[in-house]
Write a structure and sequence with these properties.
Number of helices: 10
InterPro entries: TET_plant (IPR044991), Tetraspanin/Peripherin (IPR018499)
Membrane topology: Multi-pass membrane protein
Number of strands: 4
Pfam families: Tetraspanin
Order of helices and strands: HHHEEHHHHHEEHH
Strand order of the largest sheet: 1-2
Radius of gyration: 26 Å
Number of domains: 2
Protein name: Tetraspanin
GO cellular component, one term: membrane
Mean pLDDT: 83
Helix content: 55-70%
Length: 273
């Protein structure tokens, strides 16, 4: 096997390894809290990673056994997949740019959440379609997101201990009323209405019934967006590293492919004479 083909095979093997984080990112999305209730591009990421794996494997096979046609197809397909990955990253950074988190109040360890802080696309995805939100709401109510918080009430002997806790966006937005409502704390998921509640629609939407809580609140929708945003921002780190590495190895692979073709032409010319 020619030296250039050896180099190409090694480069394609490294590209094969770089595709693994993309697949792992899609699997990670599926395993995170709340992800089962709002499936935002987790399978497209996993599918894109799987395609990258298959294409890189095809490139390795083509280089190892010197199949120039397979190598050419690999370069074309890998270029298309890297372009899709770049487009996905640009889209992810654009729609997760804003944050709806804001300090709940002085002395609180958690944030409250509002829809206005997020991008229009994210707001429309979760809150724009009533039927979609009903499905998300039912899923959240059936999940253990708030149930686990309620079980932790034994650790909060005084209200101040709960106020100092660090809640996830879903717990803050869906499992308790917004701080602006001024409800009195009884337990993480049980609150007493004030005599004069704040003029906020979420305050009227709250209920101590475990099936109600704040699942109909705008803050719950914002908490879901906060969860999706956090997951995408973390996943983007792995995707950016994988994309940069893939582009680097792709450029080297293109150079090695050209060198392999040059070697073949030289060898044919030499034997022809």
């Amino acid at each position: 096997m020619a030296v250039a083909n050896n180099i190409t095979a090694c480069i394609n093997f490294l590209a094969l390894i770089c595709a693994i984080p993309v697949v792992a990112t899609g699997i990670w999305f599926a395993s995170k809290q709340g992800a089962e209730c709002a499936r935002l591009a987790r399978w497209p990421v996993a599918i894109l990673g799987a395609l990258l794996l298959l294409v890189a494997l095809a490139g390795f096979v083509g280089a190892y056994w010197n199949r120039q046609g397979l190598l050419a197809a690999y370069l074309f397909a890998m270029a298309a997949l890297i372009t899709l990955l770049l487009a996905l990253l640009v889209f992810a950074f654009a729609v997760t740019r804003g944050s709806g988190a804001y300090p709940a109040a002085a002395g609180r360890g958690y944030d409250d959440y509002r829809l206005e802080g997020y991008s229009a696309w994210l707001r429309d995805y979760v809150a724009g379609d009533g039927r979609r939100w009903e499905g998300i709401r039912a899923c959240l109510a059936a999940s253990d997101t708030c149930r686990k918080l309620a079980l932790e009430s034994v650790f909060f002997i005084a209200p101040e201990q709960f106020y100092q806790s660090h809640l996830t966006p879903l717990q803050s937005g869906c499992c308790k009323p917004p701080t602006v409502c001024g409800f009195a704390y009884v337990s993480p998921t049980v609150w007493v209405n004030p005599a004069n509640p704040a003029a906020d629609a979420d305050c009227a939407a709250w209920g101590n019934d475990p099936s109600q809580l704040c699942y109909e609140c705008s803050s719950c929708k914002a908490g879901m967006l906060g969860t999706l945003r956090e997951q995408w921002r973390r996943a983007n780190v792995a995707l950016v590293i994988a994309t940069v590495a893939l582009i680097f190895f792709y450029v080297i692979g293109c150079s090695a492919f050209k060198n392999a073709q040059t070697e073949d032409l030289f060898r044919r010319y030499k034997w022809g004479n």
